[in-house]
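Troubleshooting log. The previous structure file for this entry was overwritten by mistake, so regenerating from the original sequence record. Sequence copied from the archived sheet and checked twice against the printout by T.R.
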Amino acid sequence: MTTTPHLALHTLREGHGLPVLLVHGFPLDHRMWDDTAAALPSGITVLAVDLPGLGESPLGGEPPSIEAAADAVVVAARAAGIERAVVVGMSMGGYVALAAAERHADFVVALGLVDTKSTADDDAARANRLRIADAVSESRTVDAVLGMPGALLGATSKVARRGLTARLEEWIRSQRPDGVAWAQRAMAARPDRTEVLARFAGPVAVVVGEEDTLTPIEAAEHLVAAAPGATLVVVPAAGHMSAVEDAPAVANAIGDLWAVARD
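Regenerated output below.
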């Protein structure tokens, strides 16, 4: 049985009414949302969580799972007095947001899915995740994922936003190896959740960087096709880290989702 860790929950903006809860990607933490939160309309309460074993959060229980992470996110929010939220997840955070919508439908009022997908890993991707998890565990370093900015950033950012590579490397280097390994194993074990979108009753916004090669536009279109009435926002000149590469564009999409959800 998996225990629920007490995750770190950060208030990025004070506001009122329906809050926005941001869930980060791998292998990062809540800091990836700082610029996006700052660009959201004033008056919105914006919170961001650190997933199990990442940022300031303790490691999750065994076995690692996206379901356990989703439960822990909702427990942390409810412990802070939040009973309903617009939940926005990027990449791994999107997997967690979908699991939260499936397991805690009363909590998730609206879904924002940023540079993510609903399908499970194929055999090759799953094996690669487990290989990286083993390498990180054995070396007790995050060296195996330090090269990820090259895949996370779009082609334009690598030329026009050169400082982002060092910024992402700094965030990755600050993570704990056991947390990185836990997250990889959790993602490797996740199921296909496309049907969750078909059943979800609230509004859905799908955001994808035009230059995202990890979860490309085709993956975003798959999400939109599965979710009745979902909106699609393609962020020009951005890759998998669209929320960092063009925070105002992603903030606009989240703000529009929040406006629909609160009505």
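The chain has a mean pLDDT of 96. Archived copy saved in two places this time.
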